[in-house]
Specification:
Elements (H helix, E strand, L loop, with lengths): L2 H13 L2 H8 L3 H15 L4 E4 L2 E4 L1 H27 L5 E8 H18 L3 E8 L1 H10 L4 E4 L8 E16 L2 H4 L3 E2 L1 H4 L3 E5 L4 H12 L8 E6 L2 H9 L4 E5 H9 L3 E6 L5 E10 L6 H12 L4
């Protein structure tokens, strides 16, 4: 069996899409489809159910991926190990991050990493914290960066950076006159929140619980799937939200938003974490990136 077919199969399995796999591998979709058909003919069984634009692995596909991704990973680590032995690091490094570190912390750091390791190509996807953790746990990626940690003995969490969450309001005549709210007062205001699984929401729910509140006690007018969407809603005077200070610095400097102090909470901080799978051997590329993160300045 051609190992390249196995690599393409694993990519389709992880992306759950022929088109996304084609983009990731820089191939055409018909080429991807043809290779998967060849692999199915080789084994004499269907590996995916085609469901419109999405594909779902069959039981045979699940079994092949269970063994196949280890073989592909071994090939990659062997090549990277030889490159490191010969004094050069090159290849593809796949990361997954939650929204705030992915949009506001990592881009500039990746630029510096690229200067140090010009032959390493970094592919970074952005999702919510729980989705990133699930990817690391399954072994789909080696390194994740998230906004909250969970109790899982198979995963290792290391503090990476610190962030501050603040209550943000639009710059209107009313909010320009208000400097602080109590939690009881905040309960009566329209509140915008992130979706379940977001690190920002996880930290918010844990903080409210310490003061005897739940999100259900507040006037939640919208649940939005990105920080950008919430910022646009705030600017449109839809409501208030508790967001990362990193995410709203530009808007606050431009006079589009302002911070409102919550009287009971002096300072609401949260950490970003690097998450890796204890059961997975780190590749030379991931080790180089982890060493770079440890030596780089960050908030």
């Amino acid at each position: 069996m051609d190992l390249r077919l196995l690599e393409i199969f694993c990519c389709v399995y992880e992306e759950r899409s022929f088109s996304r796999a084609a983009q990731r591998l820089h191939l055409t979709q018909p080429t991807i489809s043809g290779h998967i058909k060849s692999l199915e003919e080789y084994f004499g069984i269907s590996l995916f159910d085609r469901l419109g634009r999405e594909v779902r692995p069959t039981r045979a596909g699940e079994l092949l991926y269970e063994h196949g991704h280890r073989i592909v990973d071994m090939k990659r680590r062997a090549i990277e190990g030889m490159h490191r032995f010969l004094g050069r690091l090159e290849g593809d490094l796949h990361l997954s991050t939650s929204t705030i570190p992915g949009e506001y912390l990592l881009p500039s750091m990746l630029g510096r990493f690229r200067k140090r390791y010009p032959h390493i190509r970094v592919a970074m996807t952005i999702s919510d914290t729980q989705a990133v953790i699930a990817q690391v746990e399954r072994g789909d990626i080696e390194i994740g960066i998230v906004g909250a940690r969970v109790n899982d003995s198979t995963l290792q969490f290391r503090e990476f950076a610190t962030d501050r969450l603040i209550l943000v309001a639009p710059r209107t005549d009313r909010w320009d006159r208000i400097r602080a709210l109590s939690l009881d007062q905040l309960r009566n205001e329209p509140l915008l929140i992130r979706e379940p699984g977001s690190g920002t929401r996880i930290v918010l729910e844990r903080t409210l619980a310490r003061y005897g509140y739940q999100l259900g006690d507040f006037n939640v007018v919208a649940q939005l799937g990105s920080t950008t969407a919430i910022k646009e809603a705030i600017k449109a005077n839809v409501g208030l939200s508790i967001l990362s200070h990193l995410a709203v610095q530009t808007e606050m400097a431009a006079g589009l938003m302002k911070a409102i102090r919550i009287r009971e909470i002096k300072r609401l901080e949260r950490h970003f974490f690097i998450v890796t799978n204890r059961r997975r051997t780190k590749s030379p590329l991931s080790e180089a990136f982890l060493e770079f993160l440890a030596s780089s300045p960050h908030p």
